Amino acid sequence: MNTKHSDTPDEKSVNTRASSRKTGPASAAASPASSNPGAKALAARTAVAAVASWARDPEAHPRPSRADVAAAVRLSIELLAQDAPGQSVEVRVPPFAAVQCVAGPVHRRGTPPNVVQCDPITWLRLAMGDVELVSSSADLSGTRAGEVAHYLPLLEI
Fold first, then answer.
1. pTM
2. CB 3.0-4.6 Å disulfide test: which of 10, 76, 90, 136 passes with 127?
């Protein structure tokens, strides 16, 4: 079930990447290409790549802008929802994003029974495969929360 997104850019996606370079990775989040899965993966890759060196070694690299971190988190977590459709687990990365994912029993009201919650830097490390879910600082609650690990890493950066 692990689907790493490593699209090779075609002519159309190169244009998308070039236009996002002009305005920065944060603007990729508002891109109309978000309905196209390939474009979504490319936008996520671009946004995460822009903050990857900081996420991997925050002591050695300056913190990127809040907008760049937010774009990287939001776009990468959307890939998780795309790759693991469902509503049995909620993945939260406050203050930027939360998605429901993983097929199974649907949760509709109140506090979800299966939750993965972590800070943005931990999420980015998980999305890039720099750390495993079970050994990360993410908080897991519920019997199905660990199933998110089957879909990680999301990107090869």
1. 0.78
2. 76
The separation between CA 127 and the C-alpha centre of its own chain, rounded to angstroms, equals: 6
CA–CA separation, 131 and 138 (whole Å): 11
Domain that holds residue 74: 11-151
Residue 1 in domain: no
Query: What's the pLDDT tens digit per position in 108-127?
Result: 777 788 999 999 999 999 99
pLDDT at 134 over 80: yes
Q: How far apart (Å, rounded) are the C-alpha atoms in residues 82 and 4? A: 12
State residue 77's pLDDT score.
98
Domain CATH for 85: 3.30.1050.40
Q: How confident is the model at residue 154 (pLDDT cuts 50, 70, 90)?
A: very high
- Rounded Cα–Cα distance for residues 1 and 149 (Å): 10
Number of domains in the chain: 1
How far is residue 37's CA from residue 100's CA, in Å, rounded to a whole number?
18
Q: Does residue 4 belong to any structural domain of this protein?
A: no
